[in-house]
Amino acid sequence: MGRGKLRIYLGAAPGVGKTYAMLSEAHRRVERGTDFVVALVEHHERARTEVLLHGLEQITRNELGYRGAVFTEMDVDAVLARRPQVALVDEPAHTNIPGSRNAKRRQVVRRADQVELVDMSPQALRRRMAHGNIYQPDKIDAALSNYFRPGNLTALREPALLWVADRVDEYLKQYRSDHQVQRIRASREWIVVGLTGGPEGRTLIRRAARLAEKGAGGEVLAVYIARSDGLTSASPKELAVQRTLVEDLGGTFHHVVGDDIPASLLDFARGVNATQIVLGSSRRKSREYVLGPGVGATVARDSGPGLDVHIVMHEEAAKGRGLPVARGASLGRSRTVWGWFIGVGGPVLLTLLLTDIDADLGLANDMLLFLTSTVAAALLGGLLLALASAAVGSLLLNWFFTPPLHRISIADPKNLLALVIFVFVAVAVAVASVVDLAARRTRQAARLRAESEILSFLAGNVLRGETGLEELLERVRETFGMESALLLERQSDVDPWMCAGRVGPGRAPERPEEADVDVPVGDHMALAPAGRVLPAEDRRVLAAFAAQAAVVLDRQRLQCEADQAKEPAEGNRIRTALPAAVSHDLRTPLAGIMAAVSSLRSDDVAWSPQDEAELLEGIDGGADRLDHLVGNLLDMSRLQTGTVTPLIREIDLDEVVPMALGGVPEASAELDIPETLPMVAVDPGLLERSVANLVENAVKYSPDGSAVLVSASAIAERVEVRVADRGPGVPDEAMNGTLNAEDTPGGGLTTVLTLRAAQARAELLEEGDASVERPAEPERQTTC
User: Fold this and answer.
1) Which of 124, 361, 478, 584 is deepest in the core (most CB within 10 A)?
2) d(C-alpha 521, C-alpha 544), whole Å
3) 253 near 201, Cβ under 8 Å?
4) Residue that terminates a domain, selected from 587, 622, 644
């Protein structure tokens, strides 16, 4: 038999209409002549759902005995033997009774061919619940105050919507792959924001967020592309602010290393199936466009159909990307004086020297000497002084050293050419020197600025405790364009290196020597980024990162030790506070016992046998109550000190909870424990004592004639025991359960004891969950 096609009707909570939608589709299929059967439907006595079963063929359920009761399950063999075209199976999230063919109804949900979402707003679902369309009237109040709270329903609805949306994207990708479709057709808007690290990034992120809001379910992905040739010129502080902003707006931040920024941006956008790209208007000045069209124009040109590119104007547009230039800046008075002295006085002194020694060095050598003076003037005073020095030098060369001497005219055309070349060469050399020096100084300034911003931001975040180890290593990887970043440590020189933290998908060196860069921190710790070899000047900043990584790691460990110390401190506080809290409860029965004993010992009153019996009954009741309170205190002390270990075993609630009601009057508590509940993994003795305490306390504060309701229900992989009273209205349990208090609808208090279902615990044990202990088999069971 081949595999059939599966359609899943998905809903976030009971009552949204999954079964109703399936049965409605069943009637449509039957009307079209489809061979349709109902393999199993749970209508839960909902009248409108039950009516839809009329006229549909139903497969008789299989009856199974379990623990003295008879249950019905879907007869899988009968459905397969019937061989219908379509079979309807309700409630796939169901654990079958032991003895069934399959352990669960949900065997192939992830392989579904279609997923149809049946959705309803939390407010509408609560109205449906309040009208009695989901649960029976006696369960409505408890449901509205617990599972069907607006916050709970909203939290459940979100993953359902996201899961269906992701499945739609999977179907789309599979379709594109099967049909070789290159054009992007996304099921929702995926908006990529290109960031440069400049302040305009915040404007771009907010604009992208507004675009995502207009496209229902849109996603924002901010990406910063850094070159792989060294430190980034972007402001790390600004990038951190933008990362926080995009995450606050529900988007994600990505760091990509690539030398071709437009190509890298488009590759990223196509890789995430983006539909829109948001870029800022270029910060380059008009004259800089002669170097190329720019990132925005290139991305728009190469984006192709289906990928829209938005160019957003901002305040930084056309203001330039370089360092700010100080207008009217001065080189300093001393430097200017020396520049004019060398630039103008230098050629004069050379002329006096060369004419005084009466040596004919030749015009070419004379020009080289004058050129040296001009270059020196350019280095000291800049372009204007270089031009003045070249002009003075050319005139002196013409008058004193170019035939005919002492005349402005030049007899030999070759000498004229030489003088012209001298002027141009002098100016060119001077300008080139100045430009080269300025460029080097600019690069140094930019690098120093980047280093200072990185170190300042790093120190501030670490000192304030805002950066964890993973965030710090991610900052290392992003700043230096590395594939991965690791922090290695060992206990001694002979111990092996261990990984204390790692980020990035790149290779993970096992020793510092295997990394591309090795920065030691002390004797037994090293920061080891991998991806490329860094220049020597980058190691200074990397060493600062390494030192801060050691500080962060130490702080995290100290915080962990502090958190571990809180538990015994809290236990001591509780043990100190308990005597004061229960002093009244201890004194009350003790006072009653003492009063009754004093009365019996009194010789002034002749007590009748009936009176003596009542006094003795009061003494007996007070002693029992006192013994009960002392037992509870001892149990809590033993649990706090670890001298009593709960012995967990699987048991039905209906075997334990009724025994806990023995200490209260018969009509003061009502019990509602369904037989279909799964078994729970608990210590029966501790559970009985816990429930008894809750019930006795609830009965104590309940008004006369108002019974306490003890009920239980299964929710996901948990079982909840609820003790609800109508009175005037607690820590984790030792059995991996929790105890919470809620308002009872209509007034009063409801305490909810949540326990782990036996099946869920078994699955955790199979997966090796360290939080679930496997108790050793004892010789006898110890209960409190």
Assistant:
1) 478
2) 10
3) no
4) 644
- Quick one: DSSP state of residue 104? B
CA distance 426 to 629: 104
- Amino acid, res. 713: S
Tokens of 140: 């409505």
For 201, what's the count of Cα atoms within 13 Å in the CB-facing half-sphere? 27
d(CA 706, CA 504): 62
CA-nearest of 168, 166, 252, 262 to 208 is 252
Packing angle of the helix pair 346-356, 363-381 (nearest 10 deg): 160
The DSSP call for residue 609 is H
Per-residue b or e along 439-463, where b marks 16 or more CB atoms closer than 10 Å to that residue's CB: eeeeeeeebeebbeebbebbeebbe
Higher pLDDT, 54 or 477: 54
Is the model's pLDDT at 37 over the cut of 90? yes
Going by the DSSP 8-state scheme, the letter that residue 660 receives in this structure is G
User: Quick check: 474 and 564 in contact, CB under 8 A?
Assistant: no
Cis peptide before 404 (omega within 30 of 0): yes
CB atoms within 10 A of CB 688: 21
Same domain, 145 and 243: no
> In terms of Cα–Cα distance, which of 528, 555, 527 is closest to 461?
555
Contact yes or no for 502/528 (Cβ under 8 A): no
Answer yes or no: do 491 and 640 share one domain. Answer: yes
Which pLDDT tens digit goes with each residue over 657-711? 888 887 788 788 888 888 888 888 888 877 887 888 888 888 888 888 888 899 8
Distance, CA of 514 to CA of 516 (rounded, Å): 7
Q: Cα(435)–Cα(455) distance, rounded to whole angstroms?
A: 30
- With tokens 């860094």, the residue in question is 534
Cα separation, 393 vs 349, whole angstroms = 11
Would strands 86-89 and 36-40 be described as parallel, antiparallel, or unpaired?
Answer: parallel
In the sheet with 308-312, reading across from the earlier edge strand, the strands are 252-257, 219-226, 190-195, 276-280, 308-312
Same domain, 633 and 650: no
Contact between 382 and 374 (Cβ < 8 Å): no
Length of the chain in terms of residues written: 784
Phi, psi of 310, rounded to the nearest 5 degrees: -105, 125
Q: Does 588 fall in a domain?
A: yes
Distance between CA atoms of residues 259 and 230, nearest Å: 11
Residue 495 and residue 502: Cα distance in Å, rounded? 20
Of the listed ranges 72-81, 248-257, 260-269, 501-510, the least confidently predicted one is 501-510
- Does 523 fall in a domain? yes
Please state, in angstroms and rounded to a whole number, the distance separating the CA atoms of residues 539 and 139.
Answer: 68
How far is CA 411 from each of CA 87, 408, 777, rounded to the nearest angstrom?
112, 10, 119
In a domain, 684, yes or no: yes
C-alpha–C-alpha distance, residues 682 and 756, integer Å: 8
Domain extent at residue 413: 333-439
Which secondary-structure segment (H or E) carries 708? strand 708-715
Which pLDDT band holds residue 87 (cuts at 50, 70, 90)?
very high
Mapped onto helix, strand or coil, the DSSP state of residue 740 is strand
Residue 596 lies in a domain: yes
- Helix (H) or strand (E) run with residue 752 in it: strand 749-756
The pLDDT confidence band at residue 179, using thresholds 50, 70 and 90, is low
Query: At which of 261, 281, 312 does a domain end?
Result: 312
Beta carbons of 118 and 24 less than 8 angstroms apart = no
| Tens-digit pLDDT profile for residues 335-390 | 677 777 877 788 888 888 877 766 667 666 777 677 777 777 766 666 667 777 77
Tokens of 222: 């901010």
- The answer to whether 501 touches 489, Cβ cutoff 8 Å, is no
Amino acid identity of residue 19, one-letter, is: T
Strands 669-672 and 708-715 turn out to be parallel
Query: For the chain, how are helix, strand and coil distributed in percent, rounded to 5?
Result: 50, 15, 35
